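Running low. Invent one:
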Amino acid sequence: MINWHVLTPEFPPDCGGVGDYTALVAAGLAAAGDRVHVWHPSGPERPVETEAGERVTVHRLPDRFGAGTRAVLESALAFEPGIVLAQYVPGAFGARGLNVPFCRWLARLRRRGVDVRVMFHEPFFYFGLARPWRNVLAVVQRAMAAILLRAASRVYYSTETWTRLLAPYGPQTSVEVLPIPSTIPAAVPIELTAQAWTGRRGPFVIGHFGTFGDHVGGELREILPGLVRRLPDARVLLVGSGGEAFAHALPSEVRDRVDATGRLSAVEAAAALRACDLIVQPYPAGPTPGTSGPRSSPAFRRRRATKGTVARRLANHAIGSGVTAARTSPRSVYPPIR
């Protein structure tokens, strides 16, 4: 039996794709017979320690990967040594995305003989001109990535794109690409699908699913004005936590055409996406195996264009511009709603 200490910025019931993925990893390791400790920051309303299944214990950290976290983890590793696996998202690991001390602490663990592994969900902040002061994040997070690449005994990437972006900053000899499976269910109760279609506010609905962070949010801000101009009858549906605040910050001519669901369960999100005619998923690094192609979510793979020449052309243009777009048709995929 192997002991695992999994470090993650979130864990269910907190909402987020990294948390959902970490829950799948923890359950898989436990099913293989290993002992899993999941460590994550959360509010004081959450218990300090809970059992999340057989051989899986979830621990609430005292801070967001600061000095208190390091002290707690040092004690845990002394009491129960094991593999440390960091589910790394640089902007979610505290210190306003500049947590160099935590990266250096992981490097010290490795020098002491601890098996440290890092899963890169995101590599670093991208350089840009819109808000130049944020280029400090781009510089420091590249330094953080360099520390982790040299500290880890094994490195995992959620997409092959990170290989190209991270290769200049550290060795790639112990790298493995592990595309993240979709946590959105393919099977949705028909009543939820019917409810989502009944709630449509326009004849053509453009959907986006995400958390509306800086990277993808910036791409959406560029794409949405063109979409609503080309499709004057369309409305935009933002599915996921953070959509309301994102919509509020959009220009008025776009904001008036946008609806936001707020936080939804996985099955509710799937139903909302099924009620969309076009799903647009922009990614700064372009489409990746985790977001398009044969390994993408079944909920996206099974969709096919059956009407709307403008929508097809728009989807093709979007894909060529680094956007993952899928045309949906309830008549071609789902039984008719009467």
